[in-house]
């Protein structure tokens, strides 16, 4: 088996593999901000995966992240270890490209867990009856246009930097102008070109799909919810993608019936020292100097396996080689711990951690459920 970089000449075959695996493809295998790997068996294309260049907010800091998607293996090649070989190659590629963590949505979780990815957050949609939207005061709104794009993105980033797991939606992987292709782009203008909030949505056969409902304050949020409620004469319900958990609270506090659809995404720490250095650690400023001696069990990322010492000092956190290895961590424990999705007690019960890891819990604190608002 040969694993190599995906090149433009491979795109037609790579897209065929993905189309057969998933029934359709949303976008080509190669585009700005994306690279790929191709597996060949006996000289024939057998499998493919793509990696998106992203940054994901953790503790207020954007951490370089590789978003893995489009993992497809041709039917004749299944059962030969193609997917595992692609993931092993992807781990090396991610490290070489400086992407300290990786995220994916798993259709076959066992394959990815065998390589160290594990549950770290949610991707949620809420479905609500439109005639029961909160009755907030009307706020001045207007259609969004090209002149609003920079301010609209700044409004999103201000929110995203406070919610663990959200992406920064930076170029080239994301083009903020794509938002103008949607059916609904409403902005709440502020002072000096600022955007106080915005609503984006698409109208389809299944109804209204809200992608973002973001406001810098509660009045703006309630005003946008009021506008959303104006669809009640046309539609019964709307599906709202959860970007801001504060908006979710406004909706669910109305004591109305609603449906939650949640997908779990998996995170993999690719390079522990680099990931810890890139992450924000707000709780560290309140902690006294301390260390946790780790023994990292990770056969697929040997560069950070073995004894590592996590050091908290002067409000900063770092990982350096050495220590006694008193706390044993499996590769699958690193992602859920890094995200704060699971504490050491849950990881211990799952057989992924041994030893006293109370300091690890204090570092991540309780910032709320990590979430993504983008699917890839």
UniProtKB/TrEMBL annotation:
Pfam families per record: Acetyltransf_9 (PF13527), SCP2_2 (PF13530)
Protein source organism: Saccharothrix carnea
Name under which the protein is recorded: Putative acetyltransferase
Domain N-acetyltransferase span(s) in chain numbering: 1-136
Record-level Gene Ontology MF annotations: aminoglycoside N-acetyltransferase activity
Stored InterPro entries: Acetyltransferase_Eis (IPR051554), Acyl_CoA_acyltransferase (IPR016181), Eis_dom (IPR025559), GNAT_dom (IPR000182), SCP2_sterol-bd_dom_sf (IPR036527)
PROSITE patterns: GNAT
The keyword Transferase is assigned to this record: yes
Coiled coil: none
Keyword Nucleotide-binding recorded: no
One GO process term, biological-process aspect: aminoglycoside antibiotic catabolic process
Keyword terms: Transferase
Superkingdom field: Bacteria
């Amino acid at each position: 088996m040969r694993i190599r970089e995906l090149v433009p000449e491979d795109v037609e075959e790579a897209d065929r593999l993905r189309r057969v695996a998933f029934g359709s493809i949303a976008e080509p295998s190669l585009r700005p901000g994306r690279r790929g790997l191709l597996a060949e068996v006996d000289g024939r294309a057998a499998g493919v995966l793509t990696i998106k260049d992203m940054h994901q907010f953790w503790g207020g800091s954007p951490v370089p992240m590789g978003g893995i998607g489009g993992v497809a293996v041709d039917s004749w090649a299944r059962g030969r270890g193609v997917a595992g070989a692609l993931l092993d190659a992807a781990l090396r590629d991610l490290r070489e490209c400086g992407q300290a963590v990786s995220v994916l949505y798993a259709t076959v979780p066992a394959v990815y867990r065998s390589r160290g990815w594990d549950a770290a957050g949610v991707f949620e949609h809420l479905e609500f009856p439109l005639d029961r939207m909160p009755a907030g005061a009307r706020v001045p709104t207007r259609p969004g246009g090209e002149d609003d794009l920079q301010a609209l993105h700044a409004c999103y980033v201000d929110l995203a930097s406070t919610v663990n797991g959200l992406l920064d939606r930076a170029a080239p992987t994301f083009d903020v102008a794509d938002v103008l292709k949607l059916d609904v782009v409403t902005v709440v203008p502020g002072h000096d070109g600022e955007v106080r909030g915005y609503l984006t949505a698409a109208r389809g056969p299944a109804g209204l799909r809200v992608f973002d409902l973001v406001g810098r304050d509660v009045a703006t949020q309630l005003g946008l919810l009021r506008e959303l409620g104006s669809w009640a004469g046309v539609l019964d319900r709307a599906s709202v993608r959860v970007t801001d958990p504060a908006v979710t609270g406004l909706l669910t506090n109305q004591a109305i019936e609603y449906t939650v659809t949640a997908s779990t995404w998996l995170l993999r720490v690719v390079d522990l020292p680099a990931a810890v250095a890139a992450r924000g650690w707000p709780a560290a400023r309140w902690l006294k100097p301390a260390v946790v001696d780790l023994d990292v069990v990770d056969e697929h990322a040997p560069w950070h396996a073995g004894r590592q010492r996590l050091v908290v000092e002067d409000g900063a956190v770092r990982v350096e080689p050495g220590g006694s290895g008193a706390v044993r961590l499996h590769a699958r424990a690193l992602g859920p711990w890094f995200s704060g999705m699971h504490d050491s007690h849950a990881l211990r019960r799952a057989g992924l951690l041994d030893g006293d890891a109370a300091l690890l819990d204090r570092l991540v604190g309780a910032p709320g459920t990590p979430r993504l608002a983008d699917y890839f």
